[in-house]
Amino acid sequence: MKNTSSNSAVIWIPRLLVGLLFIFSGAIKANDPLGFSYKLVEYFEVFHITFLNGLALTMAIVLCALEMLLGFALLIGARAVKVAWGLLLLIIFFGFLTFYSAFFKVVQTCGCFGDAIPLTPWQSFSKDMVLLALVLVLFVKRKEIKPLFSAKVGDKWLICAAVVSVGFGVYTYNFSPVIDFLPYKIGANLPDEMKIPPGAPLDEFELTYHLKNKKTGATRVMNDKEYLKSNIWKDASWEVVGDPENRLVKKGYEPKIRDLAIQDEQRNDYTKELLSSPFYSLFIIAYDLSETDKDAINRLNALAINLTDNYNIRTVLLTSNSAADAKAFAKEHKLISEIFYADGVPLKSMVRSNPGVLLIKNGTVINKWHYHSVPKYEDIVKEYLQK
Questions:
Q1: Residue limits of the Methylamine utilisation protein MauE domain (predicted)?
Q2: Are 18 and 125 in a shared domain?
């Protein structure tokens, strides 16, 4: 191991901060690469490059791995010059995206830290600017960054780090996030997550009126409080021009789940009924039936048949497809589950798998599984139904 005593605090402080933050940021997103790929698709739509949608997942895993790898390489000082260039280009790229999101109000959550630490676009941009300043220090002094190991040993560590970084993203994609930061996590009571507590602050809005004097042509602009207090609305010589502008001035309490509405084919709402049952229910989530894994659907249907026949478990298929497509799919696969419909956004948040499974009782998520890790019928019976 080489002596690092010659490294000054000017290099080591930003080196540690940038390295650890890049590793943390990459790991948090790699914990949920499918969620990060959804965010990339939003950016593709903004920049009209939707032809990249099919590569979103691969890009998500690679970008997360690259962040972790660059952060790790910086910490051990391996290939410092190339790493400094990589960090600089990456943070400039991220800074551009967050500024564009904030200034043009397009993608309102950048996904920098996944769902673990939601940031507004301006908060994300500010974070990137602080990082950029630190990276610039490292870039200027890139040739002074001393490695902790010899070049040969450092390269071996980088290869190991690359394998672990990519492998982690591949694993979490195939077997669900290691830590679930979404509102549908195990143990969450979904009806409670949808409620606004009594006394919680509500959104506050301000109306802006544009007024014009009929006699003099003079114009005035005032908010709703000024409009009422001045009694100008009683003066017939003043008229409101156009529609008042409604602006959110203070954000109120926002429930963790605010967009879940479960309906049948006739658009009758079944949300409360399905989530308030005191008995076990099996929810099969397949937000897009055209992309769902067909073999997994067949296995889950066999599981649903056994649970329904032997324990009278209610099994539900939730999808965002049209009723016609869902019926055709159910007929093709001989599904026994009841079919209900919901928007694709909450369905994607329920479980990072297509299809995925939720076991629910009294509105509480008892357990959830990626289709690769759904337990056998006998295990479900032993673990839950025979207790």
A1: 9-139
A2: yes
Domain that holds residue 63: 4-175
Single-letter residue type at 294: K
Q: CB-side exposure of 180: number of CA atoms within 13 Å?
A: 18
Task: Look at the block and give the residue holding tokens 């490292």.
Answer: 138
CA distance 355 to 209: 50
Whether residue 33 is found in the same domain as residue 58: yes
Q: Cβ neighbours of residue 126 under 8 Å, at least 6 residues apart?
A: none
> Do 237 and 299 fall into the same domain?
no
Question: Number of folded domains in the chain?
Answer: 3
Average pLDDT over residues 295-303: 97
Question: Model confidence over 1-53: pLDDT tens digits?
Answer: 444 444 588 899 999 999 999 999 999 999 999 999 999 999 999 999 999 99
> Is the predicted pLDDT of residue 160 greater than 60, yes or no?
yes
Contact (CB, 8 A) for 286 and 354: yes
* Residue 275 neighbours by CB under 8 Å, 6+ apart: 190, 191, 262, 360, 363
226 and 368 share a domain?
no
116 and 227 part of one domain: no
Residues 146 and 208 in one domain: no
Domain-embedded: residue 38: yes
DSSP result, 186-229: TT-BHHHHTPPPTTPPPPEEEEEEEEEETTT--EEEEEHHHHHH
